[in-house]
Amino acid sequence: MEYKNVLTVCPYCGCGCNFYLQVLDGELVGVLPCKSHVVSQGKLCIKGWNASDFVVSKERLTKPLMKKNGKFIEISWDEALDVVAKKLKQYSPDFVATLSSAKCTNEENYLMMKFARAVLKTNSVDHCARLCHASTVVGLVKTFGSGAMTNSIGELEDANCIFVIGSNTTEQHPLIARYIMRAKEKGAKLIVADPRLIPLTQFANYHLRHRPGTDVALINGLMNIILSEGLEDKEFIKGRTEGFGELKKVVEKYTPEYVEKITSVPKELLIKAARMYAEAKSSSVVYSMGITQHTTGVDNVVSCANLAMLTGNVGKPSTGVNPLRGQVNVQGACDLGALPNVYSGYQSVADENIRAKFEKAWKTKLPQNLGLTVVEMINEAAKGNLKAMYIMGENPMLSDPDINHVKKGLKNLGFLVVQDIFLTETAQLADVVLPGASYAEKDGTFTATDRRVQKIRKAIDPVGESKPDWQIICELAQKMGSHGFEYSSPAEIMEEIASVTPIYGGMVYERLEDIGLQWPCPSKEHPGTPYLHKGKFSRGKGKFFGIEFKEAAELPDDEYPFILTTGRTIFHFHTGTMTRKSEALNREVPTGYVEINFKDAKELDIIDGEMISVQSRRGKIEIKARITERVPQKVIFIPFHFAENAANVLTNPALDPVAKIPEYKVCAAKVEKIEKV
Questions:
Q1: What's the pLDDT score for residue 402?
Q2: SS3 string of 119-141?
């Protein structure tokens, strides 16, 4: 018997927890937590404990598939890559697009964006960050100059005040929630702003239960109180920021009384929370997709940055603005340029000098025009303006808003190739399906939510004939006659990444063996950066913006009287592709549900556990009712993991005008009892 433990990174949320994969005679048999890891410290959440289940699922793809007469048949790798190469070469750059993946490694995301630009000659490459944290990148770049979590996870433990807004932290990022709870034990104050009674609210000093979509008004109200009571950090504002006059002018009208009318948060509570945040020695803002997934997502993020700068809570330990990433490598996929407007390291494709640098490195001419975003790709496909897509590790048939429209777009393509580890709802629509390898079957790196780049290590061989995604991309590029994809290992790819990406300049594999490094790490001598903006902001001075409150794109009316908001449950992850292959996790939450307030349920004669109808202007689903006080009256909540009652059949594809992120968190809906025949 041969037994080994292989250290790796949990493949679920962006915490970056480490554990050991237990391997017996070449077979994956379980996981063991890593006591020495800087974040997880020997702990795992329920998903982490079961992170080996999906790897060994009998539903794994093991051979390439091609659709013939409406059914999939198994084909050889040679034939599959020949077909894909031949098909993709038929389309001009304007008619083809690619989706990269936050579930894939940094090296694979780098190669996918290189493949799109150097081989297909298009900047139409995007990934699910567009659907979760595009607003973060845009908003924090505008204000601070860098679109990432400013501080480290461990620093939360020593914060004196933590303001959590739009983050159900204990369910979405349980290991980060531990640090918030530790801070509480040390005497820190906790303010939670959330329309729902999330678990964290029971530990909060103040729960600001605002109406969904009113975050800007809420934060402007806090800043109005801070300014009217002289609690702002005048020295910080004068020495390190610009645009303060604009902010001050805008927030003047957001008095506690005015904000109460918009948000429903009592003015007394608002005043107490504002004082608590401003008077603490170190205050930290923590947010997630409850802030970002709005047509005002960028405004919400900028407002968080305004609040932090107003009180001088940036550029020092245990402070800052800290977006929590929802997938293991959504930070890395952004860092490595799987976006339509930037190369790796957020270097603009529109900058001639930057483009010339990449053309020299890749020895090819590169496209100049900005590419399409995820939702724009689907829209153009539905119109017939996009003809082919290459999708790696993404499942837009569950993750994108208005799924009926997504299906129409994907079915309208002339050619669709999907590269994944399971036959997802999206893969079922493909012409060719390429079987990728899971995190347990390859080497590479992931970047956690606090910018920590860590190694994953191959524990077992890929199942069947599946291959690591980086290898598939390289073989396909070579089939299409391209050079520059002759890599022998992910380590070699990382060397190229470091050579063209300043923030990853010091990231070589031998330096990542222990606990990894946090970018920016510009050279091999640099120790990495635990917190950003020390002494000065990445853009020089931090910039205030006066942000006016705008309502969500779709509000309740007589026909659709409820606000629908969506999110996650602790037992499942994203589109359920991985967690729903786990018997233990499925046992806890086997299917979807809709949370509805007791009073609303009574009015509609709905009893707990019965199947009811939820409808929006885009579609209708049948789903089990969960009657609860977690949601206020006229608000309903649905987790989006479940294909059989997919929340995103209902959600609104209206976009933030700048970040192009859809409005998942607010749309109008109606709830009806299903009459028995």
A1: 86
A2: HCCCCCEECCHHHHCHHHHHHHH
